Amino acid sequence: MSEDRLRAVVAAGVLGSEEGNVALLQSVVDVARAIFKASASSIFLLDEDTDELVFAAVSGEGSERLLGTRFPSSKGIAGWVLVTRQSLVLEDVTGDPRFARDFAEQTGYVPKGLMAVPLLHGERTLGVLEVLDRPESSKFTLAESDLLGLFANQAALALDLLLAARRARAVLEEGAGEDAVVARLAAALSRLEEENRDAGLRLLEALTETLERK
Amino acid sequence: MALVEAHEELPAWSLPAHAVEGISLSSDWPELVDREWAWGGSTGSNVRVCILDSGVESGHPLVGEVEGSVAVSIGEDGEPVVEEDSEGDLCGHGTACAGIVRSLAPGCRLYSARVLGAGYTGSGRVLLAGLRWAVEQGFEVVNMSLSTTKQDLAGLLHELADSAYFRRSVLVASAHNMPVDSYPWRFSSVISVGSHEGADPLQFFYNPSPPVEFFARGLDVEIAWLGGATIRASGNSFATPHIAGICALILGKHPELTPFQLKSVLHLTATNVAPA
Known about the structure:
- The complex is a heterodimer of chains A (214) and B (276).
- Chain A is built from eight helices and six strands.
- Chain A is of the alpha+beta class.
- Chain A folds into two domains: 9-170, GAF domain (Beta-Lactamase, 2-Layer Sandwich), CATH 3.30.450.40; 177-212, no CATH class.
- In chain A, a hairpin with a 2-residue loop joins strand 5 (114-121) and strand 6.
- Helix content of chain B is 28%, strand content 20%.
- Chain B has helices at 35-39, 93-104, 123-137, 151-166, 236-253, 259-269, and strands at residues 48-53, 66-74, 80-84, 109-114, 141-144, 170-174, 191-196, 205-206, 214-217, 221-224, 230-234.
- Chain B has one domain: Rossmann fold.
- Chain B has six helices and eleven strands.
- In chain B, a hairpin with a 5-residue loop joins strand 10 (221-224) and strand 11.
- The radius of gyration of chain B is 18 Å and the shape is globular.
- In chain B, helix 3 (123-137) packs parallel to helix 4.
- Chain B is of the alpha/beta class and 276 residues long.
- The chains are: A alpha+beta (214), B alpha/beta (276).
- The A-B interface holds A 46, 48, 51, 72-77, 79-80, 82-93, 95-99, 120, 122-125, 139-142, 145-146, 149, 152-153, 214 and B 53-54, 90-93, 115-121, 123, 145-151, 174, 176-178, 180-182, 195-197, 219-220, 225-227, 229, 231-237.
């Protein structure tokens, strides 16, 4: 293995394994479900290439079966939350036939109520966190709303790690995409003589400053 | 390039002495602005309220008639298209907002601009095109329970929000309950709304520490839902139409108010500001 390849592999390893990141997502939905005493909780990851939401972690009802299941990104409650970036709490929606049908199609389990919150990371919307069937007896409070927001933040960070690790692996496996451009740039820079490398570094620093400028 | 065509009348860029009399504006504002003066006896009649959302189910018992509906999508050439809409509501949320506005301002005229259903990828541009359409129509109140986090759209949205402000379209937008940089609710030319925990639909608070400017009823609200149903729900997106409805009430009685004046009336009649 070449030195460059070794560095890339090490970098990808540092970013974490797919299993490790998925386990982090799983722990977020497990804890969310426990804290809210809910029957289930899920994280949907937005796949921008296909404009679909994908079950990335599920705790409770239907957990194993649902992982990887996809549906259109602007469909149903999760779609509304994703597109509007607004969180939503609904109680007793079983009287809505379309809601029940959508859920039955997606999960085979129709909840009476749900909480859904967008997973925001900087400018990006990475997905949606849902918590199904919290106890009906308790009235929803602002404190719960804040808690839901905190979980969403954690889930968004976990999703971001997962996506970064996947991009790193894609570079190793395919050598394509924007990360590959950066990798090639780094390689080219390292091959330059000292004087040219200093000039190159100054150029890249200027470029970085420009890109970071809001 | 300006997003919205300028008014036909040229704006006044300066004020010569001879023009002072021409802009003399009589004000019937009382010494003490209270809720009775602000909207007493008003049903919001003739005020046009546009619900920018997932569509609205016309004829729902809590909504009544919707006078016009359009849907915004991305056309084959990649540009946003605004067309008449017969799909109704794709999610239920727009109907819920329309029902809340109707419950507060039963005399208002409801319109729907559906910006949901075109997928996530084009959603920012669809939102922008929907809002542009609503501002061009001159709706007195636009209810927006939505936002975008895209920085490249923020500038265009800001320009549009300012344009609406000067064209007397009041944009009422849902705030986030987390410190998120999203738009347009953060702009001072819109009225941003978060939730309080009270149960009174006319209870609202002015927040002296923006960016969220008002708090309205947003928890455990009985709302209209698809298929003529009624459910209970919570979220800032339900607090927003409460303020939109109150705006419609005020404008029904005082149609001459500009968004700046309307916001002042909201401030003076807020639960934490109005004298007991």
